[in-house]
Amino acid sequence: MSIAIGEVISVRGTNIIIALYEESNKETLFYNGEKFNGVSIQEFILIRRGFRDIVARVQGEYLDERVKDELNNCYIRKVELVPIGYFYFDIFHEGIKHLPMIRDTAYLMSDNQVKSLFGKPDDKFIIGETLTEEVPISLPWTKLFNTHIGVFGNTGSGKSNTLTNIYTTLFNNKINNIKEVSHFIVIDFNGEYTRNQLISDSEFKTVYQLDTGSTEGNKFPLMRDVFWDEELFGILFKATENTQKPFLKRIVSGRSKFK
């Protein structure tokens, strides 16, 4: 069980309002050896509805001066919530699928429950932590590096630093898993990663100083099967989709047939 802190008094769309009990104003509480953060902006609240526990986040709070608790001579504190998911058999499911009803009880979430919202972290691929909860964040690295990665932001927002952090974490912790099966090519126009950045061990890193204005210097090795690819040719020659790409496709397929 957790600490009950109030009950639902209004549900309009996805906007939930709960009336808090008086003892819910504390910043931190301990119950059965577990730590609970009190009710505040951006904290998580649990609302029990049948066999499911609905997880909501605090968006705002206010005092309703129209309604007064005559017994304790104080105004009733109300909190606005937005649901983000639910627990079903102790597994968190993201998305607004279930909503509470009036008089459902709201509870605080323990630190362990909050951490479970972000999944079980991979201790060897942690890229950071959440700002408010300080929960370690890890990514499924086998899926992340098997597709495209898009990092979006304004100038100076840290896009390059984010990618550097992700790849550095990969190479520092998973190099033995990928060294025999994967190759990473970094096109570095500014020479930022030519020394011990990304990979500090020179055994796993080769730097090619390319110069298109001279026939001397390093040459980037490329296997024939990689070079003779219709998609690569389409990019190199800026081929049009309907006329030139079919021609390049016939060249590549014809070469593989008669070589």
UniProtKB/TrEMBL annotation:
Spans through the membrane: none
Domain Helicase HerA central: 127-201
InterPro entries the UniProt entry points to: HerA-like, HerA_central, P-loop_NTPase
Listed Pfam families: DUF87
PANTHER family linked to this entry: HELICASE MJ1565-RELATED
Protein name per UniProt: Helicase HerA central domain-containing protein
Source organism: Aeromonas veronii AMC34
Upper lineage: Bacteria, Pseudomonadati, Pseudomonadota, Gammaproteobacteria, Aeromonadales
